[in-house]
Amino acid sequence: MSSREHAELERLRRQLAEAEDALSAIRTGEIDAIVVQGSTGPVVYTLKTADTPYRLLVEQMREGALTVSAEGTIIYANAAFARMVEHPAEQLRGADLMEMIADAPDRQASRLFTGPASAGRDIRLRTSRGALRNVYVSSSPLMIDDKQVHCVIAIDLTRQELRRRHEAIINSSADAIYSLDPNGTITTWNQAAERLYGYAPDEVIGRKVDMLFVTQSMGSDICSESFAQAKQSQRETVQITKSGKRIDVAISVATFADADVPEGVAIIARDISERNRAQDHIKFLLRESSHRSKNLLAVIQVIASQTARAADTLEQFQSRFGQRLRSMAVSHDLLVNEDWKRASLLDLVHLQLRPFAAPGLQLKVEGFVVYISPEAAQHIGLALHELATNASKYGAWSIPSGEVSVNWKVLPGGDLQLSWRERNGPRVEPPSHKGFGSTLTQDVIAQALDTKVAMGFAPDGLVWTIEVPAHHVETI
Amino acid sequence: MIAPRYGLTLFITGATPRSVRAVENVQAFCGRELEGDYELEIVDLYNDPGRAQPANVIVAPTLIRHEPKPVKLLVGDMSDAQRLHTTIKV
After folding, report:
1. Which of A424, A311, A334, A435 is nearest to A380 (CA)?
2. Are strands A362-366 and A403-410 parallel, antiparallel or unpaired?
3. Closest to A137 (Cα-Cα) out of A80, A71, A55
4. Is B31 within 8 Å of chain A by CB?
5. N or C: which end of chain B has fewer CB within 10 A?
6. pLDDT digits (tens, 9 = 90+) for A367-389
7. Comparing A32-160 with A173-271, is the CATH topology the same?
8. Which of B8, B9, B11, B21 to probe the A interface (max A CBs under 10 A)?
9. CATH architecture designation of domain A173-271
10. What residue in B sits closest to A49 (Cα-Cα)?
C-alpha cells in the first residue's frame, strides 16, 4: 500500500469514527438538535420542540435575558441584552458578565449568579463602546439538569426613564394630546385632553375619534389623510365636548412610527375659542373706537363753539374750554377702565368733583352702588362739572357755610333719580339769561338720555334733579 | 501576531441543556489545558443555521477542532474530559 493510499485510508477511518460518534450520540441522547438541509436552507430541529415557543419568547422580549454560570460566564444571552451592551449576540456566549458591570468588583453584583433569588437592583453596564447604561437586574437560580445556573433579567432604565419623562411631559402639557391607531381609534389620552373635552381616558380609549368632531367621519378622514401623506398638518376646526359644547380648536396632526413602521397618528389640540373671542372683541373695539371718536369730536366741537360764544376774552375761553375737556377726559378714563361697558356712578361723582375739593368744602354723597351706561356717564359727568363750577362761583361752595349733597336712588320702575342739592349758600336768584352751563345741564342731557331734568332755584339753594331711564342703569 | 495553536468552534442550539453544559465544559477544558493558546468560537445554530453545512455539522452540540490539522470533531455535551482531551490534544 502506497503512503497516499495509507493517508486516504486513515482519513476514511477517522470520518467513519466521527460518523459513528454522531450516531451513537443521537442514540444515547447526548445531543439537543440536528441540522438538516431543507428546501429553503438549513433547518435546526430541536429534540425538545415543545420549548420552542418559550425560546422564541425569550429571544424576542424587550428585556435583556441571560443565563449565567456560577462563575459569571454568560451561557446564553438574548438579542435585547446584546443591544444593551452593544455586543454582537454571538460573541456574548462565554463572555464574563462581571467584566460588563461598571461597578465591579462588587460583591453585591456577583450575587446575581451565586446567591438566592434577588428581588432586583440597579447596576451600570459598560457597553462595548465604553458607554454606561443604567439597568435594573433581578436574578433567580435555575437548575438545568443537575447543574445550577442563574437566570438574569435586565431592564434598560435609560429607555424606561425616557419613557417616563415623555409621559410626564405629555401629561404636563397645556395642550390636549391624544393618539389614534390607523383606523382612527383613540389609543392614548392626556390630562389636558380630559380637561378640554371632559372625557376621562376610559371613556374614550378604544372609541372612534369621530365622536369629538361635529362633522361625521371628519376625525377618520383626518386620520387616513395623515397616513396617506405621512406629514404634519395643521388646521382649525370645531369639536364637541362631552357636555355637547362646541369648541373652536387648532389641531396639529402627525403620524408617528416605531422603527419606521407607521404606528398611529398623534393629535395636539388647543382651544382657540378664547383667542377667537379676543379677536372678535378687538374688531368690535376698533369699530366702537372709530364710532366714539366721531361722536366725541362732534361734542367737542359743540362745547368749543358754545364756550367761545359765552367767553368775553380769549383767556376766559381757554380756561373754561380746558376745564370742560378735562371733565370729559375723566368720564372717558372711567369708561375705558370698564371696557366702555359702564361706569360706577359713585366713582363718576368723586372724580368729577375732585378738582373742586378745597379745605372746609362741604359735600355729602349718598347712594347705593349703581352703574350707568357710557352715554349717561358722559353727559352726567359734564353736568356735574358744570354744576360744581357754578356752585364754586355763585352757589353754595362760594361761601364757607354752604354745602352740597349729591344723592341718588333707584325708583320702583327701575329709573334712577339723581339729585344735586345746595344748602346754606348765598341767596339764589333765577338767572336772567340761560348760559351754556344751563343748556348742558338741562336741554342737552334731557335730549341725549330722552328724559326729564328739573332745575329749581329755591332761596336756600339750587336743586337739580334728573331721572335716568332704567335702560341706562345697572344695579347689583 | 501569531495565530493561536488551537482553533475550535463549538456549535450549539441556544440555551438547551446540553448546549449549556457543552459551553461550560469546553470553556473549563480550554482554561485548564490550553493555557490561553486557543481561539474558541461558539456558534448558535438558531441564529446562524447556515454555518452547519460547510462545517459538516449535523447535530448539536458539536465541537470542531480545525487547527491544528487534521480536523477533528466531537459530539455531545463534552462532559467526558478524557475524550475531550484525546480529541483536542492528541
Report:
1. A334
2. parallel
3. A80
4. no
5. N
6. 999 999 999 999 999 999 999 99
7. yes
8. B21
9. 2-Layer Sandwich (3.30)
10. B16
